[in-house]
């Protein structure tokens, strides 16, 4: 998340039109995960993953692709440097661009003490 914010800030600083986003899809059962779950170490390394298989929290690769495409449809400077999860309402995000930028929503940030 911090890398996304930093890269977006640096690109803005030099006047680049490139936008940077972070997509946190949640648990996606990919071929890599399936292979890892077939190893002798699966119980040690993938305890949480094992419980997510077949649950409502499991996200399909197709869902990740669709959500990413939706984010790209609404991509704009107000969303630059932000992190999104796949279950968010991207129509609501699109309707609140100024508020998202002004209130630093979908960012990892801290507030400074007033001097």
Report what the structure shows.
- The chain is mainly alpha-helical.
- It has one domain.
- Helices cover 48% and strands 9% of the residues.
- It is built from 7 helices and 4 strands; from the N terminus they run H-E-E-H-H-H-E-H-E-H-H.
- The strands form 2 sheets. The chain has a two-stranded parallel ribbon. The chain has a two-stranded parallel sheet with strand order 2-3.
- The longest helix is centred in the middle third of the chain and has 14 residues, at 61-74.
- It starts with a helix and ends in a 13-residue tail after the last helix.
- 5% of the residues are buried.
- The model has no long low-confidence stretch (mean pLDDT 87).
What layout of secondary structure does this protein have?
Elements: H1 2-13, E1 22-24, E2 27-28, H2 31-37, H3 42-45, H4 47-52, E3 58-59, H5 61-74, E4 83-85, H6 90-95, H7 97-102
Parallel strand pairs: 1-4, 2-3
Structural domain count = 1
Widest beta sheet: strand line-up: 1-4
* Structural class by helix and strand composition: mainly alpha
Q: Give helix and strand order, one letter per element, not per position.
A: HEEHHHEHEHH
Identify low-pLDDT runs.
none
How many β-strand runs? 4
Q: What is the helical fraction, as a range of percent?
A: 40-55%
Query: What share of residues are in beta strands?
Result: 5-15%
Specify the biggest β-sheet: 2 strands, parallel
Radius of gyration: 17 Å
How far the N terminus sits from the C terminus, by CA atoms, comes to 28 Å
Overall pLDDT level: 87
Tally of helical runs: 7
Shape: elongated
């Amino acid at each position: 998340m911090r890398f996304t914010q930093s890269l977006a800030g640096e690109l803005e600083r030099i006047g680049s039109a490139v936008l940077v986003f972070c997509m946190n899809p949640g648990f996606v059962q990919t071929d890599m995960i399936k292979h890892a779950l077939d190893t002798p170490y699966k119980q040690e390394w993938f305890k949480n993953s094992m419980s997510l298989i077949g649950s409502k929290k499991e996200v399909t690769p197709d869902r990740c692709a669709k959500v990413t495409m939706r984010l790209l449809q609404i991509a704009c400077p107000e969303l630059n440097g932000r992190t999104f999860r796949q279950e968010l309402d991207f129509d609501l995000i699109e309707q609140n661009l100024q508020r998202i930028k002004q209130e630093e929503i979908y960012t990892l940030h801290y507030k400074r003490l007033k001097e």
